[in-house]
Design goal:
- This protein is an alpha+beta fold and about 100 residues long.
- About 40% of the residues lie in helices and about 25% in strands.
- It is built from 3 helices and 4 strands; from the N terminus they run H-E-E-H-E-E-H.
- A 4-stranded antiparallel sheet has the order 1-2-4-3, covered by helices on one side.
- Strand 3 and strand 4 form a beta hairpin.
- Helix 1 packs antiparallel against helix 2.
- The protein is globular and about 35 Å long.
Length: about 100
């Protein structure tokens, strides 16, 4: 049986606000978003792949309970964010609903 991950961010308040703004800026380029089990899926221009991947790597360092999937399909980037049920509010706050 695996342990439940700790739902906490290691960034301090100002850093959390900066990170949230970085996500908001990048995700405004989304063509579409939709809820998925334990998260949200975004369809973005393929040119956003590098920036999304870099920010996802940074996010994993401070919030290791997030799960990110990036997939290229039909000239688009499919980006999924998932987290344990107890982090649903954090997913909504950071990535939208």
């Amino acid at each position: 049986m695996s342990e439940e991950p700790i739902i906490a961010c290691s960034l301090v308040d100002g850093e959390q606000q900066d990170r949230a703004e970085q996500w908001r800026r990048l995700l405004t380029t989304a063509v579409r978003s939709e809820p998925v089990d334990r998260g949200i899926r975004f369809l973005l221009p393929v040119g956003m792949s590098g920036q999304i991947a870099e920010l996802a790597v940074a996010e994993i360092r401070c919030c290791p309970f997030f799960e990110f999937t990036l997939r290229l399909a039909d000239d688009r980037l499919v980006f999924e964010v998932r987290a344990p049920e107890q982090a649903a509010a954090m997913v909504a706050d950071l990535f939208g609903t």
